[in-house]
Design brief:
Layout (H helix, E strand, L loop, with lengths): L2 H25 L4 H25 L18 H11 L4 H33 L3 H34 L1
Helix pairs in contact: 1-2, 1-4, 2-5, 4-5
Length: about 160
């Protein structure tokens, strides 16, 4: 059964998404909505990571349940740069690039949830199906947020 591989890949991609959400939060701390919402969305991914680690044990796959709480050792530097450069035009372009990257990454995570859900249904693993039903809508919401932010911010940033 290949569910262990699917669990491992989804775990890896959720962890990467959580780290990137925290990086974007730190990098754009001056943009309060971006900063706070990205942190909340990273918490959703952290919850998904813990759920995946628990589910993987049934398939003899050990996944780390630890989740990133910060964007790493450079978090304070990102925050300081954000504060210094918030009045310049380039941070807007950086924000658009970051949101595009987050959107693509969340789309990949969403696809991984779909694949896991299909595999769980085929294996008749009701607990795993329930995990996908609980977590996948939140990933879709992460995608919707990045898309909405791109639509809202891009006209102003690109046209200025």
């Amino acid at each position: 059964m290949k569910l262990g591989l699917a669990l491992r890949e989804l775990h890896r991609s959720e962890k990467s998404l959580a780290k990137d959400l925290l990086k974007v939060s730190d990098r754009h701390k001056a943009e309060h909505e971006i900063h706070h919402v990205a942190r909340n969305l990273a918490a959703w991914s952290a919850d998904h990571i813990r759920g995946l680690a628990t589910a993987a044990r049934r398939y003899d796959v050990e996944l780390d349940a630890d989740v990133p709480e910060s964007s790493g050792p450079l978090a304070s530097i990102r925050t300081a740069i954000s504060a210094l450069s918030s009045s310049r035009p380039e941070p807007g372009l950086l924000l658009l690039a970051d949101l595009r990257r987050l959107h693509r990454k969340a789309a990949g995570v969403s696809l991984d949830w779909e694949l896991l859900a299909q595999g769980a249904q085929a294996a008749k693993d009701t607990e795993l199906v329930e995990l996908t039903r609980r977590c996948h809508p939140q990933t879709l919401r992460q995608m919707k947020w990045t898309n909405a932010m791109l639509k809202t911010l891009s006209p102003q940033i690109i046209a200025s």
